[in-house]
Amino acid sequence: MWHNPQPLPPSGHLTQTIAVLDRYGWCRSLDYSPTGRMCIRGAQNLLEKTGHVTPAARARAVDHMQTVLDRHGVTMPFHAWNDLPHQQFSNIRTLLTRAAYTARANGE
User: Fold this and answer.
1) What is the DSSP letter of 38?
2) At 93, is the pLDDT very low, low, confident or very high (cuts 50, 70, 90)?
């Protein structure tokens, strides 16, 4: 997954974002923590910088995350939601999984 990157569609990007967070750890409030953990946006930055997603596919992935949050009454940007003090990685995983499913259902 990490070698010879090929840009993924939004659904694959969201799934790969989960894999990055599983491997390096999740955090809130920082794109990258001093210990190497990442928030959602930090994991997306890593994947984009290493050629695993195009800016356009990443933007569509963000749209899918925002759609899932909107369905649950959350109107703040995903990165602000990621940083809430009570936030747990289980919620992050659920958001990314549901957003990936939504993207796949929409042919992305």
Assistant:
1) B
2) very high
C-alpha–C-alpha distance, residues 13 and 29, integer Å = 22
Question: What does the pLDDT read at residue 4?
Answer: 74
In whole angstroms, what is the distance from residue 69 CA to residue 80 CA? 12
Each residue's pLDDT tens digit, 28-85: 988 999 999 999 999 999 999 999 999 999 999 999 999 999 999 999 999 999 999 9
Burial state string for 40-73 with b = 16 or more CB within 10 A and e = fewer than 16: bbbbbebbbeeebbeeebbebbbbbbbebbeeee
At 34, list the tokens: 């001093």
Q: Give the rounded distance of the alpha carbon of 32 from its chain centre.
A: 14
| Listed residue (54, 43, 60) closest to 6, CA to CA | 54
Residue with tokens 């491997």: 23
Spell out the alpha helix ranges (H) of the chain.
Answer: 10-24, 40-49, 55-71, 78-82, 89-105
